[in-house]
Task: inverse folding
């Protein structure tokens, strides 16, 4: 509870533009997790804390979410060494210019295969989403991270292992394992307390690949699990694996048993009233029944 309270306080302070140096000194290592609101698609960014600097995993969607993440990072008193982007989806990438502007000494990187995907897609995605939104909702430009050849980063000598790429809600995702912290950042291989983004998983063959990735991550045995999407009150534990499997089961069953967009949507919504990321439901249904 102490960590949750601290996070809540830091988020409130960040929202108010207030730095809390006394609180910031309390954590000399570990992680801070920022979870955006529903408008920001409930996406997690993780700040891995070193003595004086930090590594940030994923960069948020909207400019507002990225700025709030930047405030949280600033409140820790750390500089930012590296920002790792785990996959090409805009909810993890589009906030990157905000972070680079706030922390000019940092560099953005992605696994070389992920980087190649981002290099192909980020500008068209920015053109489609940001250019059609009111000024200021999204960053004013798209940025392509550098390709990372290594399979890990080092922070004060501690390994930050970059796994995969593996299949989750898209083909090329790199979860992150920090053995010294017993912590696994699943990115979009696992969600908890939200709907899943399924438009790239429209067949049982694809969802089988996703389940295999969940199995591989669970086998690592980490105690702290930070999912790709969740609600701010959700736990950082292994329940994310079961939650993701259960939703994939629901999806496969609904695909097999329904024959219209309305039926499919109803099947996804039945019994899932408490889940966040509602946008994902319509996008998943539209992938099966376009137009
Ligand atoms: Zn995502």
Result:
């Amino acid at each position: 509870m102490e960590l949750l309270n601290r996070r809540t306080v830091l988020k409130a302070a960040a929202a108010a533009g207030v730095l809390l140096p006394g609180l910031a000194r309390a954590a000399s290592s570990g992680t801070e997790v920022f979870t955006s609101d529903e408008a920001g698609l409930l996406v997690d960014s993780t700040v891995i804390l070193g003595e004086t600097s930090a590594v940030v995993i994923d960069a948020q969607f909207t400019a507002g979410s990225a700025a709030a993440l930047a405030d949280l990072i600033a409140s820790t008193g750390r500089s930012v060494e590296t920002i790792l982007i785990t996959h090409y989806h805009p909810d993890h990438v589009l906030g990157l210019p905000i972070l680079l502007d706030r922390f000019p000494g940092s560099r953005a990187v992605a696994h070389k295969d992920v980087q190649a995907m981002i290099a192909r897609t980020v500008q068209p995605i920015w053109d489609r989403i940001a250019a059609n939104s009111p000024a200021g909702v999204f960053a004013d430009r798209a940025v392509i991270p550098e390709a990372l050849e290594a399979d890990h980063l080092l922070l004060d000598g501690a390994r930050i292992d970059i796994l995969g790429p593996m299949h989750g809600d898209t083909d090329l995702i790199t979860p992150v394992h920090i053995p010294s912290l017993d912590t696994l950042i699943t990115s979009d291989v696992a969600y908890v307390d939200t709907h899943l983004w399924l438009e790239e998983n429209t067949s049982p063959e694809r969802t089988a690949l996703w389940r295999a990735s969940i199995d591989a991550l669970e086998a690592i045995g980490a105690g702290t699990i930070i999912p790709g999407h969740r609600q701010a009150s959700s736990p950082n534990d292994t329940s994310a694996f079961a939650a993701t499997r259960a939703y994939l089961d629901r999806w496969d069953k609904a695909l097999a048993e329904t024959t219209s967009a309305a039926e499919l949507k109803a099947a996804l919504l039945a019994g899932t009233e408490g889940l966040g990321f509602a946008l994902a439901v319509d996008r998943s249904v539209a992938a099966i029944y376009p137009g």
Q: What stands out?
A: The mean pLDDT is 91. The radius of gyration is 18 Å. Residues 19 and 74 are 8 Å apart (CA to CA).
